[in-house]
């Protein structure tokens, strides 16, 4: 009976998170994505003003992995809350023509910027630090990148690892070790 009540509660929570809809460009749209002029220095300043981290997400029309993330991972109430509360998300189209101005000042279409940055897979999520010098491109400045679709646990752990700035901590717990520890904690029931 307890398992049934927990499952019903989880379904109720999941129902409160709105699923992404497809935009005119064929990309999934969520309420936590920002519509900006795609000038990364301005986007970073806006993210900092809101005390959030800048997160760039490359997607493309018809991407089955993007669909998986938007159907199975991003709607998870805990993940949706972490993204909404912590991240300033700018969506980029792997084959798009909207101009993007990189931190180094170069302005290119989304598709040409994707080539410059070496983006091959969608979704690819790039996490930026609070400060980026004018001589760096976004991937050079990124503190982490997530190329492809991952499970709820991996996604939540990466979002948390970046938000907590664990990449700056001294010691031996890089993301892989952090994620392995979190998996063990979840399996042992010491966290959800």
TrEMBL record:
Taxonomic path: Bacteria, Pseudomonadati, Pseudomonadota, Alphaproteobacteria, Rhodobacterales
Keyword Signal: yes
Listed Pfam families: Thioredoxin_2
Keyword Manganese appears in the UniProt entry: no
Record-annotated Thioredoxin-like fold domain positions: 48-131
Name of the featured protein: Thiol:disulfide interchange protein
Signal peptide, first to last residue: 1-19
The entry's keywords: Redox-active center, Signal
């Amino acid at each position: 009976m307890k398992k049934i009540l927990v499952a019903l509660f989880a379904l109720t929570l999941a129902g409160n998170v709105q699923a992404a809809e497809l935009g005119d460009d064929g990309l999934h749209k969520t309420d936590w994505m920002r519509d900006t002029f795609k000038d990364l220095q301005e986007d970073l300043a806006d993210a900092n003003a809101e005390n959030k981290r800048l997160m760039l997400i490359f997607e493309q029309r018809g991407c089955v992995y993007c669909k998986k993330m938007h159907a199975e991972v991003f709607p998870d109430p805990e993940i949706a809350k972490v993204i909404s509360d912590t991240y300033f998300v700018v969506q980029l189209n792997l084959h798009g023509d909207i101009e993007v101005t990189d931190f180094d000042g170069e302005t290119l279409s989304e598709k040409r910027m994707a080539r410059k940055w070496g983006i091959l897979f969608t979704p690819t999520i790039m996490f930026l630090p609070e400060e980026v010098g004018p001589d760096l491109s976004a991937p050079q400045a990124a503190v982490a990148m997530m190329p492809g679709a991952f499970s709820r646990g991996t996604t939540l752990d990466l979002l948390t690892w970046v938000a907590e700035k664990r990449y700056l901590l001294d010691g031996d717990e890089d993301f892989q070790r952090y994620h392995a520890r979190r998996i063990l904690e979840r399996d042992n029931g010491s966290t959800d």
